Amino acid sequence: MAKKEKDIFDEENAVQSNWFKANVPLEDKVAGTLIAKRTMKSTLPGADGKMVNIYEIKASEGTWHVLDEKKRLVEEPVVVEPGAFVSVGGNAVIDRQMQNVRVGQIIGIKYLEERPSKTKGFAPAKISKIFVMKNDDGTPKMDEEVLAEQNTVDGF
Question: What is the architecture of the domain spanning 17-135?
Fold first, then answer.
């Protein structure tokens, strides 16, 4: 008797969203190769339609804590598998630091602290810092494998 194939639409086959969402200062971080910079329209309330920067990273490592449906911190962090693709939403601090980072560069993003909002009623600002790997001569360390992949004819 032939073995019945699993249904593609089983929940266990669902692709998980890999958005870096920092919630625990000094613990939440992601590192890898910047593979793309893009913009998209925000879906956040109050910022609908505003263009925001998104940074795509091919991760080498990373962990971060998410919030549950009641906005409580989940103790067990998300652990990124090496090679997974992670999206990082830009903000004023991240965008400013990422201006001189090039696609193919090896980077890390670490959530450092939360600062109270200057505007009453607004959420605190989450402050992250961008780190870049450098060669012995001080030049940016590039991921040659990723650069070679991006130079193929069709990009696949």
Answer: Beta Barrel (2.40)
Taking Cα atoms as reference points, which of 104, 127, 25, 14 lies closest to residue 57?
104
- Sequence ranges of the domains in the chain: 17-135
| CA-to-CA dists, residue 33 to 60, 117, 123, 134, 155, angstroms | 8, 31, 30, 13, 16
pLDDT per position as a tens digit, 58-93: 999 999 999 999 999 999 999 999 999 999 999 989
Helices (H) and strands (E) in the chain, counts: 2, 6
Sequence-separated (6 or more) residues with CB below 8 Å from residue 28: 20, 21, 22, 63, 64, 65, 77, 110, 111
87 contacts 54 by C-beta, under 8 angstroms? yes
Tokens linked to 53:
């920067």
Q: pLDDT tens, 88-120?
A: 999 989 999 999 999 999 999 999 999 998 888
